Amino acid sequence: AATRDGGDPVRCYEPSMGERAARRLRLIRGFSAAVARHDVRVDFQPVVSLGERTVIGVEALARWDHPELGLLLPDEFVPVLEATGQIAELTSFVLDESLAAARRWLDRGMRLSVAVNVSVGNLAAADFPDEVATLLAAHRVPAELLTLELTESGVSSEREVALPVLRRLHALGCHLAVDDFGTGQSSLAHLRRLPVDQVKIDKSFVLGMGTEYGDVAVVRAIVEMGHTLGLTVVAEGVEQAAVRVALAEMGCDVAQGYLVSRPLPARCFERWLDSLDVHPGEPGAAAGPRT
Ligand code: C2E
Ligand code: MG
Ligand code: MG
Ligand code: MG
């Protein structure tokens, strides 16, 4: 947006349909080369235990540093790659980078779990569990350190296709999480029928906890029902100290959010870890700054 000397009202730049289509095409055509050039990378956001206040793992989040378009976020490029089938290439890349990082941390005595987001398209590929097993073996990472995050809409819309694949992933020993919980159509009762270990409460509810009583009630209900079903409950989007306190009081198990740290490139994440008082995995390790 820009103001001109004449004092015109600020106008927001609205790309036309043609411009949007052209940008989309550019992403589709440029993706594989971008991976090869290392323009696509994985950032890691710490995940902390609310009870012990220790760092227990990370979520891997894809970024695309485009030479002309600047930093692209997954909300733009993931749907494009899902539509063309190129999502399989992104998932392979993110899994490989994440497991390599988990191995590096294990070699330094830190047992951190890594969570990778997967799309419905990944679950539609019958050989996906074989690929995961191959990568776990190649990096010598125990399966229980890998969590695969699926969106609620993903598991409910293509349940028939996904279920055998989910069962095989679970049989490998990987953990499965339902992401963005609360925004979709499915209920916790429906989750009971899936081989799922974790629910991640959508950040919109967690962000709202500071101001909306309704959001506090929704979060409390998800925590209670999740526990009744034997699931680990994760809150994402924790930005305020008061919200972290409220979540801990509700018995929510795990938190992730800007309060602890934004997603960081691997090197920065490792420096951040080093800056903590105690190493993760050890009793008494600090979960980020105490605010
Ligand atoms: P998600 O899996 O729900 O990931 C959490 C998103 O919330 C991330 O956005 C993260 O940066 C953001 N976030 C974390 N803490 C806070 C907070 O305290 N406040 C706020 N406002 N936001 C917070 P990001 O990285 O832009 O990713 C967006 C979505 O893109 C992800 O949502 C996930 O669904 C998808 N995604 C990211 N990486 C991948 C990938 O490798 N493969 C696939 N299939 N999807 C991915
Ligand atoms: Mg996720
Ligand atoms: Mg989410
Ligand atoms: Mg999301």
From TrEMBL:
Keyword Transmembrane helix on entry = yes
Q: So which domain of life are we looking at? A: Bacteria
Record-annotated EAL domain positions? 24-277
The alphabetical list of record keywords is:
Membrane, Transmembrane, Transmembrane helix
Query: Does the record carry Methyltransferase as a key word?
Result: no
What's the protein called, per UniProt?
Answer: Bifunctional diguanylate cyclase/phosphodiesterase
